[in-house]
Design brief:
This protein is an alpha+beta fold. It has three domains: 91 residues, Pseudouridine synthase, CATH 3.30.2350; 130 residues, Pseudouridine synthase (2-Layer Sandwich); 57 residues, PUA domain (Archaeosine Trna-guanine Transglycosylase, Chain: A, domain 4), CATH 2.30.130. The chain is 21% helix and 32% strand. The chain is built from eight helices and 17 strands. The strands form four sheets. Strands 1, 2, 3, 4, 7, 10, 11, 12 and 13 form a nine-stranded mixed sheet that branches. Strands 14-15-16-17 form a four-stranded mixed sheet, covered by helices on one side. The longest helix has 12 residues. The two termini are 31 Å apart.
Length: 307
């Protein structure tokens, strides 16, 4: 009997930008895509609530090394909120816990309140968030009726615009930093309007460099798989370095590439004074990412396997 381990799937590298459907957890979406692609290794880049739809980048193979940078990237959302009703979870899936009148909520009042939530904003994470306390996600504790203290954290709201207001609903467009809780933002806006508010629809329109224009639905992916197999669906994958496409690129010589691959920092002409860079080989192939250290040299941080 052979002791050789059986392959757990195909070795493929790249990023699939999924348009996640409503009602599915991010992990369920990840596992479904992993089965569709027959992939050996895959990971997502930060959970979207089951209620939420939209941009969810899924990393395969070597691209999983860079998922943290997508997790840390800015995000954009379109959210619809119902006014006058407070729920336990801050969205339409939670039970109603209180009501307030919406008579005083006018277009003028909304436009007056929104500027307070632009720029640095302090948020207390919801008990129904994925934030962990002693290794347990808060939402699991909340479902057991357990509430724990949460420290306020500062996030950045780069833009916050009113898209629509009518009756007891308003829709907003939000561009924000990582770690922003849209449910908390909506609840806080409701309170600032002397009412309540909770999320009824949430759609992520961008995550880092990826937008809805880059995203593919399960129906589209499944249809292409049926028509042409893996050869076709593999073409939907974006290159591994697309996750850091807005970083400065440095082209290495054979010598500097060799030393970087052995873990040594190197000096590269025309390198920026600080920050992170993409590292390219002589032929332009993506090698990995590096960081400018104090003496101006480039230190390797994440490298990909190359032939």
């Amino acid at each position: 009997m052979s002791n050789r381990r059986k392959s757990r799937g195909r070795a493929l590298d790249g990023i699939l930008v999924l348009d996640k459907p409503d009602g599915m957890t991010s992990n369920a979406a990840l596992q479904r895509l992993k089965r569709i692609y027959g992939a050996e290794k895959a990971g997502h880049t930060g959970a979207l609530d089951p209620l939420a739809t939209g941009v969810l980048p899924i990393c395969f193979g070597e691209a999983t090394k860079f998922s943290q940078y997508l997790l840390d990237a800015d995000k954009a959302y379109e959210v619809t909120a119902k006014l006058g009703v407070q729920t336990a979870t801050g969205d339409s899936e939670g039970e109603i816990v209180d009501r307030r009148p919406t008579d005083g909520v006018t277009l003028e009042r909304i436009l007056d309140v929104l500027p307070r939530f632009r720029g640095p904003v302090s948020q207390v994470p919801s008990m129904y968030s994925a934030l962990k306390h002693q290794g347990q996600p808060l939402y699991k504790l909340a479902r057991q009726g357990i509430e724990v203290p949460r420290e306020a954290r500062t996030v950045q709201i780069y833009s916050l615009e009113l898209v629509h207001f009518g009756g007891d609903e308003l829709s907003l467009s939000v561009r924000c930093s990582k770690g922003t809780y849209i449910r908390t933002l909506v609840e806080d806006i409701g309170l600032a309007l002397d009412s309540y508010a909770h999320v009824v629809q949430l759609r992520r329109t961008a995550a880092g460099p990826y937008t809805l224009e880059d995203a593919h639905s399960f129906d589209e992916i499944s249809a292409q798989l049926e028509q042409g197999g893996h050869v076709v669906v593999d073409k939907l994958l974006k290159p591994t370095d697309s996750s850091v496409s807005d970083w400065p690129a440095l082209t290495l010589t054979e010598n500097t590439a060799y030393y970087l691959k052995t873990g040594q920092a190197v000096r590269i002409p025309q390198a920026p004074a600080d920050g992170w860079v993409r590292l390219l080989g002589v032929g332009g192939e993506f090698i990995g990412i590096g960081e400018v250290i104090d003496d101006g040299r480039i230190a390797p941080r994440r490298l990909v396997k190359t032939s």
